[in-house]
Amino acid sequence: MKYSSYKKQQKLFENFRRFLKEEASPAKISPDDFPMKLSDVGKLYTPQQAKRIASTGLKDGSEDDDKIPASETTAAVRELLPSQSSMNIGKAVAFAIAAILHNKPFPNGPGGDLGAIITKDNRIMDGHHRWIASGMVDPTSSVGGYEVEFPAEQLIGILNLLTLHFTKSDKGKPGGGSFDDFNEQGIYAKLKKYATEGVWSAGDDPKAVQQALEAWTEQKGEAAIVAAAKRMAQNVGELTTQVPSGFPQREDMPIISAGKGHLDLAIKLLNSGLIDVNPNFAGDTGEPGGVEPHGGTYQKGASPDAGVDAEEEERARKMRDLEENKRRRRRRKK
Q1: Which residues pair with 73 in a beta bridge?
Q2: How far apart are the C-alpha atoms of 63 and 148, rounded to whole Å?
Q3: Which residues of 192-201 are buried (b: 16+ CB within 10 A; e: fewer)?
Q4: Strands of 112-119's sheet, edge to edge?
Q5: Contact partners, residue 295, CB within 8 Å, separation at least 6
Q6: Would you call the peptide bond into 174 cis, given omega within 30 degrees of 0 as the criterion?
Q7: Which of 88, 98, 169, 252 is the 20 to 30 Å CA partner of 35?
């Protein structure tokens, strides 16, 4: 079955499933609660607040209204779309050389497991350089990851909240560069550099780079570099690289690391409905996570010490009540 036909049947099944069982609704996600920029999430919440929001979705009176289905998937490189416009051509070309040589992270050539999240509108949340490198070498190759049944526009904010929870930081990966750099001249400049100086993806051996390009293009010497640049640029032309207006730069995108176990944990949280994303929210405040001013919970927009202050205030209140009860008992004895 073709990938596109499979997707159509999958969508029909998803719509039928939602008819039978309630799940989280993207339309109910407020950008005021889940901003698209990681830095804005950091301004709005502390890591403790993010943790609370990511763990109270089952405490809002409904077990299903926060569930966001996610499952393993495989997709064609040319059918996937980026979600950030920042792209480093040097890094991408280095990855492309690794794919040609079947070096890490491409032991089987272009494609393979991205270890990334793919939205229901086919946008990848991470692994952009591995994705475009696979496309540069073979746009018909396939990549694997987790498909999450939510559109990118709403999912980015949720994953940024999880990034703050997992990493305790609102600092994303360094950005720079754009898809405009991925033309024949730009790619040639990097290939020439690596064939002269070497690159990490070929063991820092310039001869390995040259030999890889010669084997891939069936050309020799300089002609192999020229032919490889042209072929890679043509392959990039088969990909869709446009990013919707308003989407974050790389510095403000989520970081959900597979190597650190964050990817598996994120999938479990999404599937379980533990992330409090849809109203009714936990508690009586009308805020994700059941925002409360006291008792060890946290208030949106508060200072980083707000949770600690609230807990201390609650303990102080209990101590005052205890002392007052003691005084009352003493007065009664008199």
Answers
A1: 145
A2: 18
A3: eebbeebbeb
A4: 70-76, 142-148, 112-119
A5: 310, 311, 314
A6: no
A7: 88
Q: CB–CB of 172/40 below 8 Å?
A: no
CA distances from 161 to 32, 36, 42, 55 (A): 12, 9, 8, 12
**Which class for 15: exposed (0-12), middle (13-18), buried (19 or more C-beta within 10 A)?**
exposed
Are 228 and 100 in contact, with CB atoms under 8 Å apart? no
Residue 320: enclosing H or E segment and its boundaries? helix 306-333
Omega of the bond prior to 183 within 30 degrees of 0, cis? no
**pTM above threshold 0.85:** no
193: its two tokens: 């550099």
Strand pairing partners for 147?
71, 118
Residue count of the chain: 334
Q: Over its length of 334 residues, how does the chain's per-residue pLDDT go in tens digits? A: 444 455 555 555 454 444 445 689 999 999 999 999 999 999 999 999 999 999 999 988 887 889 999 999 999 999 999 999 899 999 999 999 999 999 999 999 999 998 889 999 999 999 999 999 999 999 999 999 999 999 999 999 999 999 999 999 999 998 889 999 999 999 999 999 999 999 999 999 999 999 999 999 999 999 999 999 999 999 999 999 999 999 999 999 999 999 999 999 999 999 999 999 999 899 877 899 987 654 445 566 655 444 444 444 455 556 666 666 666 666 666 5
Residue showing tokens 């599937």: 271
CA 274, CA 268: separation in Å to the nearest integer? Answer: 9
Query: Could you give the 3-state DSSP secondary structure of residue 104?
Result: coil
How many other CB atoms are there within 10 angstroms of residue 6's CB atom?
13
